[in-house]
Specification:
The chain has seven helices and six strands; from the N terminus they run H-H-H-E-E-H-H-E-E-H-H-E-E. It is an alpha+beta fold. The radius of gyration is 21 Å and the shape is globular.
């Protein structure tokens, strides 16, 4: 019986650990090495080695955050290059199609096509949220829909009764870069789905350099 190569096993474990680190940074946002070590149940030194490896691949970077005591902490986050590790909704093909539609229908025609897409999304989400009464229930159902589409969405409720709707990934990011109408229609879509008695404001945007899109949502008094 052929013995397994321990070097291959070690490399496989290292690769899986780095994938987990990337996933955690995608889900949680910026984290320091000790926070990552705690979640992975490994030493801080081991995590740092993996982070420096990922940095060499240009998948992560960091900013230094001051601490009340001691040296500043390195807060690690994903770079735009890391987006290639997550589903992108066939970005290159979509971008090519957008450019073709601009040539065929001009900007006004493309806007009409986006409006048709938007209304179909509104109808689809309203159907999924039909049984929900409370705003919190609607947001949870909407987050489930968006997550199934690759947006990695979640809802956070605040003490003042407002909510944050967070999308940690954008599967159509490349398309949105090529056509800003996708993002503006998305904001309109959330507003239409949740109703006129709800205020929706985008306070963080991936295309503006953030690592996630965040919407502040509250009931209008």
């Amino acid at each position: 019986m052929k013995k397994k190569d321990p070097t291959v096993n070690a490399e496989g474990m290292a690769t899986r650990t780095r994938r987990t680190i990337v996933k955690l940074l995608k889900q949680e946002g910026s984290l320091d090495a000790l926070q990552l070590a705690k979640q992975l149940d490994v030493s801080g030194m081991a995590v740092r080695q993996h982070l420096y490896n990922l940095q060499e691949q240009q998948l992560v970077t960091y900013v230094e955050e001051p601490r009340t005591m001691g040296r500043p902490a390195k807060m690690w986050r994903l770079t735009p290059e890391a987006n290639r590790l997550f589903p992108d909704g066939h970005g290159d093909l979509v971008v090519s199609l957008i450019e073709s539609m601009k040539e065929a229908f001009d900007e006004e025609g493309l806007e009409k096509l986006l409006e048709i897409r938007n209304q179909k999304q509104v109808a689809q989400y309203k159907n999924k949220l039909a049984a929900c009464v409370l705003l919190h229930e609607k947001l949870i159902a909407l987050a489930e829909c968006r997550t199934s589409e690759g947006y990695m969405a979640e809802v956070a409720e605040h003490t003042d009764g407002s909510f944050s709707f967070v999308e940690k990934h954008c599967p159509i990011c490349e398309a949105a870069k090529a056509c800003s109408g996708f993002c503006s229609k998305e904001l309109e879509m959330f507003q239409q789905v949740l109703g006129n008695d709800v205020e929706v404001e985008r306070i963080s945007h991936m295309l503006s350099g953030s690592n996630r899109c965040v919407y502040a949502i509250k009931t209008v008094n």
